[in-house]
Amino acid sequence: MEMTSVPNSFTEKGKILAELKQPYPEIIELEILEEVRKLSRGIASVPDGIVNEFLKAVIQLDPKATADIHKPGRPTRDPSSYRPLCVLNTIGKLFERILARQLNAFLEDSRILSYSQFGFWKKRSTLDAIKRLLTIIKTSNERKKVVGMLTLDLCNAFNITQWSKITTALKEINALEYIQNKVVVYLSDRKI
User: Fold this and answer.
1) Which residue in 4, 26, 67, 116 has a CA-CA distance of 20 to 30 Å to 18?
2) Reverse transcriptase domain location, by residue (predicted)?
3) How confident is the model at residue 48, as a pLDDT?
């Protein structure tokens, strides 16, 4: 494949990588942390204003800290009355945002997600799901049809999902290998 111009969006880059069948080597958080550890101390002022000591201090912070936040109006002795809040360091947050953007772009481009699904789609929310439900009910009532509904509350779905199930699902949908690798890194040593 001949590249005549630089891709101007992540989606275009993803399409080029998919056509090449050989993604560029990814830069993962662990590599960044390793390189920051190698930086020397005491360097004079630099053009970007970020001194090495600052970067070294940032990576020494606990990468993940959790706090249990009590849900108002719930009994304090019930474990389900608390919401675990995971606080990531800045590098971790950046990594998470990039990973989410890449995974969402892959899911949209590959059309894996059903149009009926409202999670993981840009510009779609719970309100859109409710509007669709109301339209179905109205149309069914106009046609004198019976309407039934089954709802499921997947309480803490992400928190109770085994990480291996997530990585297996990515393999089954043929997610690009570099996305699979990033998810493995993201989930490594993560506990809820």
Assistant:
1) 116
2) 69-178
3) 63
